[in-house]
Amino acid sequence: MDLTKTLYYGAVVIGVLIAVGVVVSVVSAILSLLRLLLVAALLIGVVYAAYRVRSWLSGDDDGNDGHSVTDRIGNFGSSTASESRSTGSSPGGRDRLRRQYVEGEIDEAEFERRIEREFEAEDLDDIERELERER
Predict the structure, then answer these.
(1) Residue 88 pLDDT class (50, 70, 90 cuts)
(2) Phi-psi category of residue 64: left, alpha or beta, with phi > 0 → left and psi -120 to 50 → alpha
(3) What digits encode the pLDDT tens for the residues 63-83?
(4) Which residues fall within 8 angstroms of residue 73, CB to CB, at 6 or more apart?
(5) Looking at residue 120, what DSSP letter applies?
(6) Residues near 132 by Cβ (< 8 Å), separated by ≥ 6?
(7) Which residues, including other chains, have CB under 8 Å from residue 61's CB and lie 6 or more apart?
(8) Measured between alpha carbons, how far is 89 from 122 in angstroms, rounded to an integer?
(9) Sorting pLDDT into bands at 50, 70 and 90, what band is 90?
(10) What is the pTM of this model?
(11) How far is CA 18 from the centre of its chain?
């Protein structure tokens, strides 16, 4: 065999080895990306499942405890906030009452009595806030 053929075959073998190395690297990168996406999807699934379990255990279908975020943030730490939450005087409380009425859990008289109590509690909260502002 002469030297040119040997150099030619040597160059072909090196080229093939480089091509195989590139293909292996690309496949490895794709598999790593897929593994990362799978781990992220599993993590999101676990977090969502924990959220749903918490919602289920608290007895609330939508994961909301009946109070809006602004109600929790806006009235944080005030005595009227805890009173309004205990009486349920919030838009979320009224929505919960409507849902109970529509689903037949409470009758019309009970619904009207509770709604009236909601509005009375809301009026009392407004009066207490006005008195606190005046002090």
Answers:
(1) very low
(2) beta
(3) 444 444 444 344 333 333 433
(4) none
(5) H
(6) 80
(7) 55
(8) 6
(9) low
(10) 0.37
(11) 47
**Side-chain half-sphere of 124: how many Cα atoms within 13 Å?**
15
d(CA 32, CA 7): 37
HSE toward the beta carbon, residue 87, CA cutoff 13 A: 19
Under the banding of pLDDT at 50, 70 and 90, the label for residue 97 is confident
Tokens 């929505």 -> residue? 95
Closest CA to 123 of 69, 71, 87, 78: 87
80: exposed, middle or buried (C-beta count within 10 Å: 0-12, 13-18, 19+)?
middle
Q: Which residue has the higher pLDDT, 42 or 118?
A: 42
User: From CA 17, how far away is CA 19, in angstroms rounded?
Assistant: 5
Mean pLDDT of 84-91: 48
Residue 56 has pLDDT above 60, yes or no: yes
Give the C-alpha separation, 9 to 6, whole Å.
5
Tokens of 16: 């093939």
Q: Taking each helix axis from N to C terminus, what angle separates 91-102 and 108-134, rounded to the nearest 10 degrees?
A: 180
